[in-house]
# Entry
Amino acid sequence: MRSSARTTAIATLAAAIGMPSLLAACHSGAPATLASAATGANSASRVYVPPGQKDEFYAFFSGGFSGQVSVYGLPSGRLLKVIPVFSQDPQEGWGYDEETKPMLQTSFGFVPWDDAHHPELSQTNGVPNGKWLFINGNNTPRIARIDLAQFKTEEILQIPNSAGNHSSPFTTPDGKYVVAGTRFSVPVPNRDTAIASYAQAFKGTLTFVRADEPGKMAIAFQILVPGFDYDLGHAGKGVSDGWFFFTTYNTEQAHTKLEVNASQNDKDFIAAIDYRRAEACVAAGKGTTMPASYDHNVIDDHSNTAHVERKTSVTVLDPSRCDGLMYFLPTPKSPHGVDVDPSGEYIVGNGKLSAVIAVHSFTKMQQAIASKSFDKVVDGIPVLKYESVLAGEVKSSGLGPLHTEFDGKGYAYTSFFISSEIVKWKLGTWEVVDRTPTYYAIGHLMIPGGDSRAPFGKYVVALNKITKDRYLPTGPIMDQSAQLYDISGPKMQLLLDFPTIGEPHYAQALPASLIHSVKFNTLTDNTNPWAAKTEADGGISRQGKVVHIKMAAIRSHFSPDNIEGITVGDTVYFHLTNIEQDWDIVHGFAVLGNTDAAELILAPGETRTLKWVPRASGVYPFYCTDFCSALHQEMQGYVRVSPAGSTVALSATIGDHAVGGDRMAGMHPAVAAGAAHAAGGHQ
Ligand code: RUQ
Ligand code: CUA
# Structure
C-alpha cells in the first residue's frame, strides 16, 4: 500500500467508526469550550493538595530524550525531582564528577545521553514493592536501576547484540528478570554487512537480565529471533506466569521505507516465550557462548564511586535448539503495546493500524499449542491460528490503539493515538463502556499499578505527544503534556493538565507509603579513600603535575579554604566531603572557569571529586552552589594559580593556619607514597 493509500485507509476507518470530529480535534486543536466541558465540576478540589500536605502517589515519568526520570506527585501533578540517569546533569554534577563519570561508560566509550522510554517498578509477587525503578536507554542499549531509598541511579547494564532497546525493561512478577528486546534487528554479532541483505542476515535478540540483586544485574541469556522489529513486552502473571510476550512489527522484513513496506501484512505477531523453558535449555547446555563487549557500571554505596566492568561474552539461545520455547500469535496490524490483564489470562495486542483490539486467551493458547493448531512455521517458529488463540475483539473502539492498562475492577483502558482518546472497555464482554478525548495524541497511559497483578487504580494519566494549545506557547519546541483523569466512578473525568520534561513515553506510579526510607550515608560508612571526615582531615598533596585537595564542607565554610602553589599545567582534583549528618543538608562546589566539569552537589556524608585544569595564572574563587545556611554566601575560598615553573610553595589554609604541601596526614596511602617518590613534586 502506498503511503497516500494508507492515509486514506486510516480516514476510511475513522469515518467507519464515527471518529471524524475527534480526528479534527486532534489535528486542529479543540476549542476551549470542549476542553473545559471535559473537566468535572469540582475537579480543582480533587487535585488540590494544600500547602504542607503531601501527594498520595509517587509517579515516575520517563524523561524521553532528556535521558532522565522525572518524579511527580499525584494527584497534584507537582514536579518533585528529576533523577539523572543516562544524561550528564549539571544540576547534580551527575556524569561530570570523577565518581559518577564511569556510570555513562559503554563499549562505545563515554555516552553522555540517551533516550529513556519505560520506567518499570520492581515487583514482588506481581505487585510494585517500592525498592527500585528500572528504565531503558533506547539509543545505546542499556538498562538502569534506580534505588528508591535514595532516588539515585546505582547501576547501568549495557545490552549487546541489540540496537534500539525499546521493549525494555519490563519485569517478571517475581522480579527475577527484566527484559530487553531489540527494536532494530542487526547483524548478530554486528559486523560490516550489506543492508540489502537484511532479510537473510539481520536478527533480533530478546534478552533476559537477572535483576533481583542490587549491583548484580547480569545477562542470563539472549534468544536469537527472526529479523523483525521488537516493540514492547510484558510478562505473563497468574495463569500465564513463566511466559513473556513481545510485540513485533515489520514481519515483512523490509529495510527501506518502513512506513509503507512494513505495513503490508494484515497481521504481525506477538511472540510468546516460555522463559522457564529457556532457562532449562540453557542449563542443559543448549545455548552458545558468543563473544560480546559491553559494560556493567555500578556505584558502590559506601565509597560513592562507580566502577566499570567490561563483559566479554554472552549466552545466546537459538529457538531451533530449544523445542517449545517460542510461538507466534498473529495480531492485527503492526501491534505496538502488548498488555496482560491482572489475572494473566488475557493478552491484549494494540494494533496501531487496526480497527479492533485483539485479545488473546492464554488458556486457548495452551490448547492450541497442545493440539498443534498451527497456521504455518516462520523461521522454525510455529505460528498459532488466530481463531484458536483469540479470546475476543474490542470493536468500534477507536483509531490507532497503542497501550492498555487495567484498573483491577474488570476494566481495561486503551490509548488511541490517531483518534486521541482513552477508551474504557470490559474484560470478557469486550464492550466499550466509556471514552474520553485526550489533548492531544496520547501515547502511553498509566494507572498506578496498572500493569501489575493488583492495580491501585483511582487515576489514569494520559501521556500525550502533542501539546499544541494547552499552555502558553513557548515556541515550536514545547514540552509534552500529561493529563490526569479520575477513574473511580463509571465515567472517566478529566481533572488536570500538567507539562512534562522530555517526551514522557511511559510512567509508573505507586502509593507514597510504599517508599519507605529517605536514606543517606553516614560518615562512618564512607569508604571513599579521599574522604575528609573532619575539618582537620583536609589537606593538599602533589604527585608530579597532579594535585589532590581533600576538602570538608560544613555550614558555612570549606576546610581548607585558601590554596596556593598550583601552577599552570597542573591537573587539580578537588575531593569534597559533605561532613554534615542531617539527612537533607546539601552543599555544592564550583570553581571559576572550569572547562572539565560542572559543579558538585554533595549529599550528607558523601565524597565527590571535581577535576579542574587551570589554563592561566591568576586567582580563582570557588564557592558553595547550594543555599545551605544564613552564611551560605560566605561559603567560599580562593585558589592561586602561578605560572609554570613558579616556586610558590604548595599550601592550604585550614582554620587559621596554612598547612604545607607535604601534609600527608590522612591522605590516600597510594598518593602519599607516590608523592613521596615524585621527584620535584614539591615546589
Ligand atoms: S512507546 S507511545 Cu517508546 Cu513505549 Cu508507546
Ligand atoms: Cu554550603 Cu551553601
